[in-house]
Amino acid sequence: MDRSLRVAVVGAGPAGIYAADILTKAAPAATVDIIDRLPTPYGLIRYGVAPDHPRIKEIITALHHVLEDPRIRFIGNVDYGVDVKPEELTPFYDAVVVATGADKDRELDIPGIDLPGSHGAADFVSWYDGHPDVPREWPLTASKVAVIGAGNVAVDVARILAKTADELLETEIPDNVHRGLLASPVTDVHLFSRRGPGQVKFTPMELRELDESPNVEVVVHPEGMEFDEGSLAAIRARRSLKMCVDTLQNWCARDPRDRPRRLHLHFLQAPVAVLGSSRTEGLRTETQELTGDGSVRGTGVFTDWEVQAVYRAIGYLSRPIADLPFDPVTGTIPHEAGRVLDLDGERVPGLYATGWIKRGPVGLIGHTKKDANETITSLLADVDTLPAAIHRDPADVLTYLDRRGVGYTTWDGWKRLDDHEVGLGRPHGRKRVKVVPRQDMIDISRGI
After folding, report:
1. What are the phi and psi torsion angles at 409 (to 5°)?
2. Which of 407, 427, 443 is the last residue of a domain?
């Protein structure tokens, strides 16, 4: 490779950081700026993983190592498409890789879904993870709650709602989240899955963690614990699914335990309406039956559940970025092996995508690395045809942001904030206590 590449990666979550790592290993002369709208790196690892999942958060150690590479520069608190338009950054880079992820809730089109007390899981996750752009208070006033979904996010939400606040004190939850959960009057959390136990999407680890709280009794209701040939074939094909099913069957058969809170698992129950006039007062579901191939159909039998709050956890969705192609149905940027395509299906020179904005919000961290590899392979194959950056000095883009009045943060600034949060947790025997307000994060990052 004759010329050194200047590349911008938009998004400092795993997808973006893996892309930067793969690129700099394949092209040692390349330099990468990772740009993020948040003042901090790590994306959904910091703001999408439940605080009581320290094992998953250990991924940050590997990502930290990548960001220590002097060829990779973190530029935070810059909202691509808002603070700077895509075309305004083009003169500074040979290529741009979009890795903005997915942080919106997928919609559920049923009557009553917009009633007060009906929430998207992504918003609740952002609240309990201390995201700076969501309100600091959350309406935890329900004693009985419904969670809709059968994936890891649904399980996380149900677990956080069911646990006592003090059980989370050893984690990094912000003080306002602890206070909110402490006041919660919840006694029963009901998780509803439209399909059967043979079609669940959560992992064995996530499922087992439901049963680790000494204050929560997990109740698997036998109605819906059904399997057809399609279910059995799926269980035989996937060891992780078999582990989940074995766990569910064991819980279903065990004797009840006397615990102050209960987390109920219901299968083959599809939500059809959130009930109430001026606020959420219940959830109506329709009992489903398996069709033989693992699919389900309605039976016409309906049940009304007395709940005062409903959380939908049926998937994430990406946000469109100003002036970039976007498919609103799939919630992705149209692409060909990571090469972004315009509305006519033609390649946009120098523009690439990776992660959930590329393939949709599916898969685990390992899939993200494979995905980034495909995109960077495409970028490197195109290197001789990429439009060359006009301003190649890495200082030029920072000068431009300064001139625009964009108050960006840096990697050294993140390390100051990181040390500060760890210091806040140390007197209380916690690994860290998150700083939540955006301006506070920025000020600490800058040593103010």
Report:
1. -110, 165
2. 407
Same domain for 207 and 258: yes
What pTM value is reported for the model?
0.92
Radius of gyration of the chain (CA): 23
Q: Which of 254, 261, 181, 251 is nearest to 216 (CA)?
A: 261
Nearest to 10 by CA among 91, 104, 85, 106: 85
Distance separating alpha carbons of residues 73 and 17, to the nearest angstrom: 10
Domain that holds residue 140: 105-316
Provide CB contacts within 8 A for 58, sequence distance 6+.
none
Phi and psi for 217 in degrees, rounded to 5? -95, 120
What is the tally of structural domains in the chain? Answer: 2
- Helices 152-162, 121-128: axis angle to 10 degrees equals 60
CA atoms of 240 and 259, how far apart (whole Å): 29
- Here the CATH number for the domain that contains residue 195 is 3.50.50.60
Q: From the CB of residue 354, how many other CB atoms can be counted at a distance below 10 Å?
A: 32
Cα 247 to its chain centre, rounded Å, is: 25
347 by Cβ neighbours in 10 Å (0-12 / 13-18 / 19+) ranks as middle
In 3D space, the residue among 315, 294, 321 whose CA is nearest the CA of residue 362 turns out to be 315
| Per-residue pLDDT tens digits for 319-367 | 999 889 999 888 999 999 999 999 899 999 999 999 999 998 876 666 7
Burial class (CB in 10 A: 0-12, 13-18, 19+), 261: middle
Pick the closest to residue 206 from 84, 53, 62 (CA basis): 53
Dihedrals phi, psi of 105, to nearest 5 degrees: -85, 135
For helices 175-182 and 121-128, the axis angle rounded to 10 degrees is 120
Let me know if residue 430 belongs to a domain: no
The mean of the pLDDT values for the chain is 94
